[in-house]
Amino acid sequence: MAGEIKEKLLGNTEENDVDGQVKFRHKLWVESKKLWIVAAPAIFTRFSSFGINVVSQAFIGHVGATQLAAYSLVFTVLLRFANGILLGMASALETLCGQAFGVKQYHMLVIYLQRPWIVLTICAILLLPLLFFTTPILVALGQEENIAEVAGTISLMLIPVLFAFIISFTCQMYLQAQSRNMIISYLAACSFLLHLFLSWLFTMKLNFGLPGALGSTILAYWIPNLGQLLFVICGGCPQTWKGFSFAAFKDLWPVVKLSLSSGAMLCLELWYNTVLVLLTGNMKNAEVAIDALAICININGLEMMISLGFLAAVGVRVSNELGRGSANATKFAIKVAVSTSFLIGCALFIIFLFLRGRVAYIFTDNQDVIDTVADLSPLLSFSILLNSVQPVLSGVAVGAGWQSIVAYVNIACYYLIGIPIGVVLGYLTHLEVKGVWTGMLIGTFVQTVVLIIITLKTDWDKQVMKARERVNKWFIPESPEQSPNEQADVAA
User: Fold this and answer.
1) What is the model's pLDDT at position 489?
2) How deeply is 156 buried, as exposed, middle or buried, from its count of CB atoms within 10 A (0-12, 13-18, 19+)?
3) SS3 (DSSP) at 483
4) What is the rounded CA–CA span in Å between residue 230 and residue 438?
5) In Å, what is the CA distance from 266 to each residue of 130, 139, 302, 349, 410?
6) What is the pTM of this model?
7) How far is Cα 306 from Cα 44, in angstroms, rounded to an integer?
8) What is the 3-state composition of the chain as percent helix, strand, coil, each rounded to the nearest 5?
9) Contacts of 396 by beta carbon, 8 Å cutoff, 6+ apart
10) Contact by Cβ (8 Å): 407, 92
11) pLDDT, averaged across the chain
C-alpha cells in the first residue's frame, strides 16, 4: 500500500515537472515571438542603414586613402557626435511611447512623437557649427592637415544627413513602440539597394568620385524618412496618429530635461569609439592606423546592429510590460533578450577569430591596412562578444527610464577607467592602437558587470509603480468623447 502511494506521488511529481516544462517552453516561445517581432525588423533596418555607410566607405576607399581616412573621421567623430546627441535625446520617446502604449494611452503617442521634432530640430541647428568648422576642429584635435582639409569638404556636403537623423530616430521609436516597424525594414532595404547601385554608377561608371558617393549617401538617408512619414500620416497607425496637435508645444521643458538625460547616456556610449579614433590619429603612420581602425569599427558596428536591434526590442518589451503593470513579464523579457543576444555574440566571436584580416579586402587593397586589421582581429572579436550584452542592458534602462543612472555608470567606466588605462597602454607601453583598444575594452567590461548587477538588484514591482506615475504625469485627456474603457485604463 505504501509502495503504491509512493509510486503515485512520484508519478504526480513527474507529471507536474513535464507540465512545468511545457508551460515554460510555451512561455519562452511566446516571449521570443514578441521579442523578434520588434528585433528582426530593427536589426534588418540597422543593417541596411549601417550598410549605407559601409557601401559609401567601400567606394570612397577606392577613390583614395586620404578620402577614406577623411570620410571615416567625419562619420566616426563629427557625425557620430551629432548622432549621439540626437539619438540619445530621441530615446526619451522610446520610454514614453512604450509605457503609454502599454497602459493604452494611445492618443498620447502622437504628442510624444511631435514634441521631439521641435526639440531635435533646434538641437540640430545648434550642431551645425561642427560641420561648418570641421577642418580647424580636426586640426586642433591633432589630425593630419591634409586629411582634415578633405574632411571639411565632406562634412559640408553631409549637412542634409544631420537633419535626416531627426525623422529617422523619432519615427522608428514611435513605430517600434507599437510593434509596427516592418515598414521601416522594407524602406531601409530599398534604400540600401538603391544606394549600392547609385554608388557604383556615380563613382565607378560615371567617375564622379567623392561627390558622387556622397550624393548617393544623402539620398539613401532621406528616402526611408519620407516613406516613414507618409506611412504614419496616411493611415498606417490609425490607433495612435490623430493628426498634428498643438499639445506638442506644451510642456516642452520637461521633454528637454528627459531628453538630455537620455542623450547623456547614449552619447557617452557612442562617443567612446570616437575617442579611440582620435587617439589613433596622434600615432605614427596615422593614415594606415585610422583606415585599419575604421574597418574594424565598421565590422564591430555591423555586429552592433544586432545588439542595437535587441536594445530596441527589449526597450519596447520592458516599457510595454511596465505600462501594463506586469513585473514578472518584464523580468522574463529581459532574460530572454539578453540570453538570445549573447548566444549570437558567441557565434560571431568564433567566426571573426577565424576570419582575422580576410574581411579587410572588402574595404581596401592596401596591404599595410590589411595586415593591421589582421593584427587587431582578436580585440575585434572580444569587442563583438562584449557588445552582444552591454547594449541590451542599456535597452533595459531605456525601457525603464533609468537613463540618468546609466549616464553616471558610463562616465565612470568609460572615461575614468577605460580611456585612462587605454592611454597608459597605448602611449607609455608603446602598444599604440592595441593598447588603447585594450584599455577601452576593460572599461566596457566593467560597465557591463555594473549594469548586470543593477538589473539583478532592481525591484521591478517598484518600477511598475514608477512607470504608472510617469505616464499619468504626462497624460493629456484626448477629448470628451474618450471611450469609457480607455478612461478606466488610465485611471487604473
Assistant:
1) 42
2) middle
3) coil
4) 45
5) 19, 26, 18, 24, 9
6) 0.75
7) 8
8) 85, 0, 15
9) 314, 315, 318, 334, 402, 451, 455
10) no
11) 80
Q: Quick check: 129 pLDDT over 60?
A: yes
- Over residues 15-48, the pLDDT tens digits come to 555 556 678 788 888 888 888 888 888 888 888 8
Q: What is the average per-residue pLDDT within 43-63?
A: 82
Residue ranges covered by each domain of the chain: 38-479
Residues 212, 202 contacting (CB under 8 angstroms): yes
Return the pLDDT at 445: 92
Quick one: average pLDDT of 120-141?
A: 87
**What number of residues does the chain have?**
492
Give the cell for residue 415: 572615461
Around Cβ 196, how many Cβ atoms within 10 Å? 17
Contacts 24+ apart (CB under 8 A), 189-194: 189/44, 189/48, 190/223, 190/224, 191/48, 191/52, 191/219, 191/220, 191/221, 191/223, 191/224, 192/48, 192/49, 192/51, 192/52, 192/55, 192/220, 194/219, 194/220, 194/223
Residue for grid cell 576642429: 137
pLDDT in tens, 194-212: 999 998 888 888 888 888 8
Q: What are phi and psi of 417, to 5 degrees?
A: -115, -60
DSSP letters for 23-52: HHHHHHHHHHHHHHHHHHHHHHHHHHHHHH
Q: Which long-range contacts (CB under 8 A, 24 or more apart) does 412-419 make?
A: 413/443, 413/444, 413/446, 413/447, 413/450, 414/268, 414/269, 414/272, 414/440, 414/443, 414/444, 414/447, 415/268, 415/443, 417/442, 417/443, 417/446, 418/272, 418/442, 418/443, 418/444, 418/446, 419/275, 419/443
Work out whether the CA dihedral 127, 415, 437, 431 comes out positive or negative: positive
* Residue partners of 164: CB distance under 8 A and separation at least 6: 218, 221, 222, 225
- Residues 92, 155: Cα–Cα separation, whole Å: 28
